[in-house]
Input
Amino acid sequence: MAMGRYSRVDGKKSSGYGLTITIVLVVSLSLVGAWMFMSSWSAPTEAIHFSPSQTTNDVEATTTKTDFTNEEASKSEEKEVVTESNEEKPDPESSGEEKKQDEEKKEFEDKNGEGDRKDGEGEKDTEPESDETKQKEKTQVEESSEENKSEDGNKTEENNTEENTEKKTEGETEENTEKSKDVFPSGDQAEITKESSTGSGAWSTQLVESQNEKKTQVSSIKWKVCNVTAGPDYIPCLDNWQAIRKLARKHYEHRERHCPEEAPSCLVPLPEGYKRSIKWPKSREKIWYNNVPHMKLAEVKGHQNWVKMSGEYLTFPGGGTQFKNGALHYIDFLQESYPDIAWGNRTRVILDVGCGVASFGGYLFDRDVLALSFAPKDEHEAQVQFALERGIPAMSNVMGTKRLPFPGSVFDLIHCARCRVPWHIEGGKLLLELNRALRPGGFFVWSATPVYRKTEEDVGIWKAMSKLTKAMCWELKTIKKDELNEVSAAVYQKPMSNECYNQRSQSEPPLCKDSDDQNAAWNVPLEACMHKVTEDSTKRGAVWPERWPQRVETAPQWLESQEGVYGKPAPEDFTADHERWKTIVSKSYLNGMGIDWSYVRNVMDMRAVYGGFAAALKDLKLWVMNVVPIDSPDTLPIIYERGLFGIYHDWCESFSTYPRTYDLLHADHLFSSLKKRCNLVSVIAEVDRILRPQGTFIVRDDMETIGEIEKMVKSLQWDVSKTQSKDGEGVLAVQKSWWRPTEVETITSAIAKAGEV
Output
């Protein structure tokens, strides 16, 4: 029966066994040939030229090292070879292995600085972000450059390209900031993750080569102490004698910023006998003499109760030239003279010009007022340094030839108590600069001698000031005399509409051109003109901010029509940023960093956006200098609107402050942007210059940048107190040590000749 069945191959009966065998063999060979033909047709041509062993070696040379066992890795390679050779749909097991390898590749990219995007977000998310940044707020670079262009008319195409590049860079940085805004909201729960090594066979990658070179450069840093004429008080952009000796002095050009061509990378020495600063509020009354070892002010201003020597301390009775009997009495006198000033309510953020040792600003804290004081680095030796050592906000600056580094229309009140500024000369150019910075409806308080003395010079100045302020449409609200201190104060108010400007019989001082941006302030020359007041209620300046403290948590109404820095509508952006920093500060910084906040008084946010970090610290006994880098979106007006203050700055240059003046520096995604155009070693040297020994430095950035910064601060022998990472983002907290190197580097530009100091 079986034989009969097999004999029916061709449909006919066979009578011979041999014939049956022959037919079976022919059919079998035909089927085998067909199968081989089909297999050859379906395989890719590349597979034909490789033996299985060759393919396996190639796979091994390009596979990322993992934690799999050797057996699992071997199985993975075999399955990959089969799939490659047959081009068939892989089985589920093979798909799982490929998925694991894709995940490992993604992990490799994350570990090397390319993984700061959240899961599910890729390059197609980045493209629109770059477009969106074109619609966002201008940077200070753009505003100031456009303003200088309108004045000079000689802007080059190269600079335009650089600005666009910097703007794009900031857009990318802000995108990363938004995506990482929830990093470590629960404080210490995130642990340090270990990076997995990668294998690339005999060939290196550009990524590995570049990272190794950076590590070599960082590890090879040889720090030296600066040898300069100013010694422990060195401020690179104010002590550039190479530039100063070439300058005219009529308009105080020699007191303005003139930075050396190459930012110094040496470390400023400590004064002999330097100690950790006295805590606030005791520091308001006394500081260690050895920390600021200068006697001149105590000798010439002691009788006015500025500062006195008392053993190992310098003491501050709280007086000043115009308030010998104490700043608090003078502060209350001004309030009584014109109650609408309303310290700590309507008036929250003020500017104190020619501040001396800043006792006026120091005691305004008792009235819930934030005063930013400034004075030049001049013959009043170390006055700003005294203020900062006391824990009072101050900076070195001068009313010279350039605009102050603040936006327009931001200060609630500007104060000048015998500040020695000739407001009335040259068309009132300097007073018009205060008009730019003063908020519409804001007050100018002037208690200098022309207000109350009757000498020929004082009377002449008063007449000139009266004519000028009237032409500026400032209304003289009151002149009152302080019987105790035997001085008088005049209170002026800036108009809140353009009605007076439009009705003037003469156009002196003139109105600024419509193209003149009042917010452009970085290296912009002064002009003797006035900006019109904004009357549109949907724009900034037309409406007075909310009363303090409501204003710190309230998004300004004029933000409603704008797009926020992080891509959302601006009010939502503002609120999200505020809540984010409240969470980070409360759950991480205050409890998880090991910081002794009783020693923290002077704080700087090196890259503020909306001022959320400073707002989250508002209930502590400290103040925050909010710095908006010139290549970041210009959000500084928003910070002032919240009842906080700040300044524009370029971190490729030195900051206008004395060494050892801040207790805590905070940098959120600053350095990853900065390293594209600055020497990070010089920036870290600047961080060392302005941070006090035992002060805290907190950096939030991508992990590659965190790694670079960590190596630099370790080379300074600083103590790393916290390192955390999550989703390609990291946080680094370190404490500055007392270490100074032994080798010395002479900074030629900072060496004064005999008789120059």
